[in-house]
Amino acid sequence: MSQQSLEGRTIYIPQMSYGGSRTLAAAFQSIGLYAETAPDSDQETLELGGRYTSGDECLPERITLGDFLKIAQLPDFDPKKTAFFMPTAGGPCRFGQYGGFIEKVMRELGYGDILVLSPTSSDAYAGIGDSDFVRTGWRAVIASDAVQKLQLKTRPYEIHSGDTDEVYETSLQEVCDVVALQTDNKTRLKKLIDVITRARDRFRAIPIKKGEQKPLIGVVGEIFCRHHGFSNEELIRKVEEFGGEVWLSDITEWVWYTASEERKNLRLAGRRFSKAMLANKIRSAIQQADEHAILKPLHEDLKGYEEPDVERVLAYSEPYLPAIGALGEMVLSVGKAIYLYEKGADGVIDISPFTCMNGIVCEAIYPRISEEHEGLPIRTFYFDGTASDLDRDIGIFIELARNYQRKKTKQRI
């Protein structure tokens, strides 16, 4: 889809990640397109999405469709001036059907003029736009993930409730302001580094309780549900309420994985030496350089919270789910659970939509992983949009994590 076809339209981005969706909207603004996040999800979201789904679809499809239908109900809604951003992917996941299904529902409702923007994981989302926009979007994701990491490692220890979230909002807005600038790549990178440095200093200034180390709970699983607070009933905040600290698998993990998958598929197709492979490696090298530059100011602050190279995650997963035969989030979740164990985490929670195949496969493997890794507590939480007794289950899990914390041999690095 060309930039010209999007001009004059408002691009709506699902809030898969609160910060990520806002910074991605800013990236669209950097090339002169207007974008904003979809409205906050609520009960109306579930009701609207439920009207056009059968129940066989996973929760993120119902949520994203419902939020887009809320937009269609706005008084000034004009399908000719609207575009919905809905990436797609192959592999063992219904996510690949979202874009087409949304188009079908909108067409049946008489909104056939809406454009659905669906970049694909098959080329590591390189088709999302020109190279400058792809680079800006990548930097936006890195920065939003970084600010969220600072938020999650600080908030459980804050003395004054709300300090961390306030700093997070201020820092995220500064990131968005820089990402939205219509400037050259060099200038934007310098400004982003400055913003991350200021964010670091703000988080450092938050009064915290010292000398306490709460159980560290890694959160893996389906990328939408684990990042979308409404979908997971604010599980991350509940873990914090019960005395835990969360290490949330970030968005960049998936981008690195799709790039790795593209290289694997090119090798299998006999295209090891091809223009496509060269383009992938050049793009990955540039992305790695940008990631290193943006995260450099946080080197000391994120000690012990370093994200692994995706090939390392795949290597950890290999004995359980070989990457040559298994695909998607199941491979990442299994490998990341083991990496979190190696980093001294005290438990791992997998957040998945109800009936999600990735979650079901992982749930079957987690008992073996736990047994082979000192009894690391691992639990899958499924979500389908109906209320559950999450407080009870989180409370029990945190107690298991505390017991593990006292006896484990792998200390936090």
What does this structure look like?
The chain has 413 residues and is α/β, with parallel strands linked by helices. Among the domains are: 8-123, Rossmann fold; 214-250 and 307-413, Rossmann fold. Helix content is 53%, strand content 9%. The chain is built from 16 helices and 8 strands. The protein has helices at residues 3-6, 18-29, 43-51, 59-72, 98-108, 131-154, 163-179, 185-204, 223-227, 235-241, 252-268, 275-295, 310-317, 329-342, 357-372, 390-407, and strands at 10-13, 34-37, 82-85, 115-117, 216-221, 245-248, 347-353, 378-383. It has a 4-stranded parallel sheet with strand order 2-1-3-4. A 4-stranded parallel sheet has the order 6-5-7-8, with helices on both faces. Helix 5 links the parallel strand 3 and strand 4. Helix 13 packs across helix 14. The longest helix is centred in the middle third of the chain and has 24 residues, at 131-154. It starts with a helix and ends in a 6-residue tail after the last helix.
Could you write a compact summary of the structure shown?
Helices cover 53% and strands 9% of the residues.
